[in-house]
Q: What sequence folds into this?
């Protein structure tokens, strides 16, 4: 099999998906300037702590809150929060953050049920409001929910660590 | 924001119902602005307390990534209180009807070659599992084929074969019929069957049930043994009496698929290798000698 001089661990036919990943990744990133915006940084801090609080479960899947934050970042960096609960801004913000999490959970776990999730945490959100907010987020993110994050690249770097070949790195899968 | 007022009625004119499934209904519709047709699948939210169904989110997210000229594309996702509408590219003709409607053009060897190439160039991207002439759409003017089956949780698949749904063991790979583990080679098998059918305009295997399908395969391609397919004995077929697994007169592929050039027969034989591990891959098929003089 032909090897490429500048990518010693990649075969010719593996380079294409690698380039493709870079191309795709930009579609899943927050807009430029987002991380310098102080107002949004405060909002983000709230989101992280609220997600930490409500994502607790057993067994804990760290990828779910991680994915939820990637939705949050993409949304907040280019859209205004929708007003679904008009009477209470804080509840509205919580609902938004919560829906980033339910969407991430649904992407990850087939058996996830919103109703049970709310019940177990004694959260009093109306299921209609949850759906409205979810739809709003989905539309704003153009339903592109299979976020390509840093984890998608790991398969290409793990071989560089010189780990024995029997521990095959997980390749990013587009299905 | 304008995406919230982009409702079905504003953007599309709903025409006749062209299908019905347990997920909801399929309509033909017209894009008011572009004046083009589209098909639209309406998926009702069945469980009111669960937000947007996870199967729909996962399916649509996947479709959003599939941007390929040989795949029926998802044009739009519109939502309402009670449902989401998935709007797909619309093509009137599927490959099955195309072969019936254009018996002469449909047998043109160059067209067969081109269609096969197009189908293969898409098929390694996803596992379809159910490729057959009924779910391959044909753009007759542009001579383009587009696959309309994404092998996904069914609600989000592009609508195909509205009139009747036939269970088609005739295109299923042997490992699917005997319940073994399967992967992308199952699609290559189906594409091989479709390839043969494009040449002859007759299904290669007619198998009405899985048992007769297996018999037809073995009659044409030989009964596998531990040498041609290591591990085959553990798959649950009784191979102790190979004669009982074949029927009729033994014929070769070139007898059955008459008119196909020798390189084509060679490619077909490699696509119809019973052992999935030895079956040719889509990538290798695309660089096979058969396509060299295309």
A:
């Amino acid at each position: 099999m032909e090897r490429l001089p500048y990518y010693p661990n990649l075969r010719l036919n593996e380079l294409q998906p690698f380039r493709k990943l870079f191309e795709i990744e930009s579609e899943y990133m927050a807009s430029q300037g987002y991380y310098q915006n102080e107002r949004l940084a405060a909002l983000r801090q709230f989101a992280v702590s609220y997600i930490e609080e409500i994502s607790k479960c057993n067994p804990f899947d760290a990828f779910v809150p991680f994915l939820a934050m990637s939705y949050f970042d993409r949304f907040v960096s280019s859209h205004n929060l929708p007003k679904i609960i008009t009477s209470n801004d804080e509840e509205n913000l919580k609902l938004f953050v919560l829906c980033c999490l339910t969407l991430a959970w649904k992407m990850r776990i087939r058996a996830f049920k919103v109703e049970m999730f709310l019940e177990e945490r004694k959260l009093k959100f109306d299921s209609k409001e949850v759906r409205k907010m979810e739809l709003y987020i989905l539309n704003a993110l153009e339903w592109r929910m299979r976020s390509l994050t840093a984890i998608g690249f790991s398969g290409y770097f793990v071989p560089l660590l010189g780990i024995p070949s029997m521990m095959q790195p997980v390749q990013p899968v587009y299905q | 924001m304008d995406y919230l007022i982009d409702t079905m009625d504003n953007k599309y004119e709903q025409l006749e119902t062209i299908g019905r499934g347990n997920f909801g209904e399929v309509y033909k519709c017209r894009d008011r602005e572009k004046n083009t047709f589209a098909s639209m699948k309406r998926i009702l939210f069945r469980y009111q307390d669960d937000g947007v169904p996870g199967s729909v989110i996962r399916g649509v997210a996947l479709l959003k990534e599939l941007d390929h000229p040989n795949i029926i594309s998802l044009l739009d996702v519109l939502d309402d209180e009670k449902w989401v509408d998935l709007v797909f590219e619309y093509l009137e003709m599927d490959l099955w009807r195309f072969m019936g409607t254009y018996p002469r053009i449909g047998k043109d060897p160059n067209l067969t070659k081109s269609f096969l190439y197009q189908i293969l160039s898409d098929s390694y991207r996803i596992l379809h599992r159910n490729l057959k002439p009924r779910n391959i759409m044909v753009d007759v003017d542009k001579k383009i084929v587009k696959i309309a089956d994404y092998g996904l949780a069914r609600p989000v698949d592009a609508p195909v074969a509205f009139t009747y749904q036939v269970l088609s063991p005739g295109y299923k790979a042997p490992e699917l019929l005997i319940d073994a583990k399967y992967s992308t080679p199952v699609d290559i098998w189906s594409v091989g069957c479709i390839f043969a059918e494009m040449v002859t305009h007759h299904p290669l295997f007619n198998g009405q049930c899985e048992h007769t399908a297996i018999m037809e395969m073995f009659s044409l391609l030989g009964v596998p043994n531990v040498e041609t397919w290591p591990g085959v004995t553990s798959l649950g077929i009784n191979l102790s009496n190979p004669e009982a697994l074949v029927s009729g007169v033994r014929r070769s592929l070139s007898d059955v698929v008459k008119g196909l050039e020798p390189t084509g027969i060679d490619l077909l034989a490699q696509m119809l290798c019973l052992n999935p591990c030895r079956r040719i891959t889509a990538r290798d098929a695309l660089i096979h000698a058969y396509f060299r003089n295309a």
Notes: Helices of chain A lie at 12-25, 38-54, 63-78, 89-108, 114-120, 127-140, 154-157.
